[in-house]
Write a structure and sequence with these properties.
Number of helices: 16
Radius of gyration: 22 Å
Structural class: alpha/beta
């Protein structure tokens, strides 16, 4: 039986490839296909039973009906050691290891879903860019794009030039409600006129971008001072408190279920944050807050996290953390699957990827 390979790619980071991969796995498995998942080049190192793999790859792999070996599902992981070896000219795993791992993954599966690197260029130094991976795996490319509505779709057009006929179509992801009409009535026809088919439009869902207090504490290396039983609380966004108390109160009321980042010595800002819908206080400078702040936070069940870094560094790390959609939280994968079913033209998608719309014998 012939294999069908689908390469899920993006033109920029944090476009939602992993979520689309998970939804595709669920869709195809539900139609009777044996589905394998493969991430040739990972950027989120995680060790499982002594094997270094990618965190997202491990998450999706364990939900497959027939999981692949951990050492095959992501054969190249961008660890610090990998980067150092690459820059020093030492031997690093590359195309041969990817090809060998793909052979192992493909065994017993009808369809292989390949998650490409974060953007079209990532991995190029190791000859594992999206185009390099496509040359190894073959198949069709499904482009997942978090569009910037104020700019023309330059990245998508450039991707079409680079990928050629291998590009099956585009899914526009993370589209805010106010931008839906613009995407559907302006961007989609523009791309269609250039031979680029839109296969779906997925709305922005803040729940999918949320992270837990525990994830923030782990990422920032912080110390939880109070309300330690709230580590699994979901945090939807973050705000920076660097103003006076009166302005801070008005500012913080704009967002709910947020983290507030401010200096450990800014008791006025901390108290203002606690008067609004705040899930976490991140206090920078390794400074313990006043007893009044701790008592009020504990009363409200708000975690206080003390970090040994300046506010700018904390904000940069949080920006990266919130930019990456994580499916690991409770119900997130199911939420993504429902969004996919509602926002994607499934029959058109399957046809574009050369997959029959109903289970049965392959063409």
């Amino acid at each position: 039986m012939d294999k069908t390979t689908i390469v899920v790619a993006s033109t920029r980071r944090y476009s939602g490839k992993t979520g689309v991969c998970a939804a595709l796995v669920d869709l195809l498995a539900g139609r009777g296909y044996s589905v394998g998942y493969f991430k040739p080049y990972g950027g989120m190192p995680r060790e499982i039973d002594g094997v270094v793999t990618d965190s997202d790859a491990a998450f999706i792999n364990r939900f497959l009906a027939a999981p692949s070996p951990d050492d095959a599902v992501c054969p190249v992981v961008r660890t610090r050691a990998f980067v150092e070896d690459l820059l020093e000219g030492r031997s690093v795993p590359g195309a041969p290891e990817v090809a060998a791992a793909l052979t192992r993954i493909a065994e017993g599966h009808d369809v292989i879903i390949v998650e490409a690197p974060s953007d079209m260029a990532q991995g190029a130094a190791a000859k594992l860019s999206t185009s390099d991976i496509l040359a190894i795996t073959g198949g069709k490319v499904l482009l997942v794009e978090a569009s910037e509505v104020h700019d023309p779709p330059d990245r998508i057009v450039a991707a079409r030039t680079e990928l050629g006929e291998a590009l099956a179509g585009v899914i526009h992801n993370h589209v805010r409600e106010a931008d839906l009409q613009h995407i559907r009535e302006r961007v989609v026809p523009f791309l269609q006129a250039r031979g680029i088919r839109t296969l779906g439009v997925l709305e922005h869902d803040p729940v999918l971008s949320s992270v837990t207090v525990r994830e923030i504490a782990d990422a920032l290396g912080g110390r939880v001072l109070c309300a330690g039983d709230g580590l699994e609380t979901q945090v939807a966004s973050f705000m920076v408190g660097a103003m006076g108390q009166e302005k801070a109160l008005r500012f913080f009321r704009r967002k709910a279920h947020k983290a507030v980042v401010t200096g450990g010595d800014r008791a006025d800002v901390q108290m203002a944050a606690l008067e609004t819908s705040t899930a976490l206080l991140v206090l920078t400078g390794n400074m313990t807050p006043s007893p009044a702040v701790v008592a009020r936070a504990d009363e409200l069940g708000v975690c206080v996290l003390i970090v040994d870094m300046d506010t700018l560094t904390a904000v940069e790390q949080l920006d990266t953390l919130f930019g990456h959609v994580r499916l690991h939280g409770p119900g997130k994968a199911d939420r993504m699957r429902r969004m996919f079913a509602e926002g994607v033209d499934i029959d058109a998608l399957l046809a574009a990827l050369d997959i029959p719309s109903a289970s049965g014998s392959r063409p």
